[in-house]
Specification:
Elements (H helix, E strand, L loop, with lengths): L5 H20 L2 H11 L3 H36 L9 H13 L9 H4 L6 H13 L14
């Protein structure tokens, strides 16, 4: 049947509806009897399906474990950044910067409440202030130059 044959698609849809209605009208015993006739023992089939499901879950878990191990190995092999950032120092630097901002620099309420900001927000805010030229970037010793 082609995709443009409207009558054929309608006939196929009617057939699907009849088959679904037939399945919904059948009792559990009738369905089991049909399965036994076509496939054999339902309990044996259920056990085989359960075993296939457990194998697929086990394989997925092993794949996740291998991916985690690869990620850990890559992380451990990555060069260590010699400049360790202390978030206490970064937060103190942001607090000093905000306290000493010139009056023409508008600081939002969120920026003034730096204790409520996440570490990523604090680092991003300092980076933004550096890009705007309001804050001089840190030198290697961690002091402002």
């Amino acid at each position: 049947m082609t995709g443009t044959d409207k009558k054929g698609r309608e006939a196929l849809a009617r057939l699907a509806d009849v088959l679904v209605d037939d399945l919904l009208a059948a009792s559990d015993q009738e369905i089991v009897a049909e399965f036994v006739e076509a496939q054999g023992d339902p309990a044996k089939n259920a056990g085989a399906m359960r075993m296939l499901f457990e194998k697929s879950v086990l394989k997925a878990n092993k794949n996740r474990l291998h991916a985690a191990q690869a990620g850990l190995a890559a992380d451990q092999a990555a060069p260590v950044n010699p400049k360790i950032v202390s978030m206490t120092n970064v937060r103190a630097r942001l607090k000093r910067t905000l306290a000493n901002c010139p009056p023409e620099v508008k600081v939002t309420l969120a920026a003034r409440n730096e204790n409520e900001l996440s570490d990523a927000d604090v680092l991003g805010m300092l980076q933004d202030l550096e890009e705007l030229g309001i804050v001089v970037p840190d030198d290697e010793s961690g002091n402002q130059s």
